[in-house]
Amino acid sequence: MGAEASTEADEEAEYERLTRERTKKRRQRKLKEKQQSVGVPVAAVPAAPASTAPSIRAAVPTSTRPKAKMAQKQKIVLNEGNVKRRVLRVLVTGGCGFLGSHLIDRLMNDGCDVICVDNLFSGQKCNIQKWMRHPRFEYIRHDVTEPLFVEVDQIYHLACPASPVFYQNNPIKTIKTSVLGTLNMLGLAKRCKARILLTSTSEVYGDPEVHPQVEEYWGNVNPIGIRSCYDEGKRIAETLMFEYHRQNNVDIRVARIFNTYGPRMLENDGRVVSNFIIQALDGKNLTVYGDGSQTRSFCFVDDQIEGLTSLMNRGHIGPINIGNPHEYTILQLAQAVMKLANPDGKVEHRPLPSDDPKKRKPDITKARTLLGWEPKVGLEEGLKHTVQYFKDFRAIHEEPI
Ligand code: NAD
Ligand code: UDP
What we know:
Blueprint: H1 2-37, H2 53-59, E1 76-78, E2 84-86, E3 89-93, H3 98-109, E4 113-118, E5 137-141, E6 154-157, H4 164-167, H5 171-192, E7 195-201, H6 228-248, E8 252-257, E9 260-261, H7 272-281, E10 286-289, E11 295-297, E12 299-300, H8 301-312, E13 320-322, E14 327-329, H9 330-341, E15 347-350, H10 365-371, H11 379-398
Helix pairs in contact: 3-8, 5-6, 7-9, 7-11, 9-11
């Protein structure tokens, strides 16, 4: 106990000492700059201790003094070890959604100050409920197609419906969200000098003619099909990211996410993993679109969040594929789900929606080499967690009130 207390006191003292030293150095630096700006030879004034600063300050005519800048306020908090430190302020757009809420859990557990922005189009407040009263957390109900004024250091820009059922529900809104939403967030990043990460998608490759998909591949997208509101929206969002980077020096990161699944997907989400699990738990036939030979590569949400945070905090701007390179046909996925949730289940074929990509598998060489990242959770293990989540979710929601 005594040793712990003295360590805390030592850390406190060390922190104070470092702060004093930094303040002193900053004052000396500013002083030098002022002297140079009014033509005072630097050598004429000794590197003065902080206490002599006022007299030299007085020697500089007020009119030639640079306007006092507003001191950049750094929020200092005490963490569990009672050590003072600078807190990273992070904005997550689309934070009430499936990926956004997992990302918020990660950022909150890492000690960040988090602002979640969401218009609840395809997300739900219950996904972030546990943080609502936390002093480092703030939720703003806001549509990213409108400008936003907050002060942040990093922006994870996820806001956009990701399931075909949702993004095709209001395609014009989907385009506005990708285009205007990304413009607004880039404007915010530019003003705050914040780093911004866009969650782009494997859909930028369309129905790919290169397999597996490498980042250099430009894609095969139908610009007027029923998926293009999403695909082309994300492609222009990527263009905006790179133009703001080239023209305005905005610090960007672009992740191309491949099909990701896990707890907190909506029951009525419409994406294949949640559809199959819900159908299996209900003892219904699994709806396989087309003959089920089309492929996807499924990434578990924990791996995805690790990939996104690695990209945000490393020096590579992307675009970088973040996904699991193990490829399955949709029929194989149906069998894997039935094995876990309804071994006597059957599949039922339905028409294949137009422009449904025939195959999809990421080449993750870049993520492996540049981020040191690769997925760890296999399909069976990830599906087990997801099936359990839906079972628990239903058990809670079926309880009498
Ligand atoms: P999701 O639909 O669960 O989450 C999106 C969130 O954005 C929702 O909470 C929704 O309410 C919010 N939103 C939508 N439009 C908005 C607007 N105009 N203003 C404010 N909030 C808005 O989807 P997700 O799976 O969590 O996907 C998150 C991001 O990742 C999306 O940008 C998506 O394109 C991208 N992505 C996801 C996958 C995947 O497999 N999950 C694959 C590729 C890309
Ligand atoms: N799919 C299916 N049954 C469903 C839902 C989807 O067979 O109930 C198919 C869909 O046609 C596609 C694949 O599963 O080939 C993945 O669909 P999802 O909507 O999850 O994602 P995306 O097509 O955007 O990759």
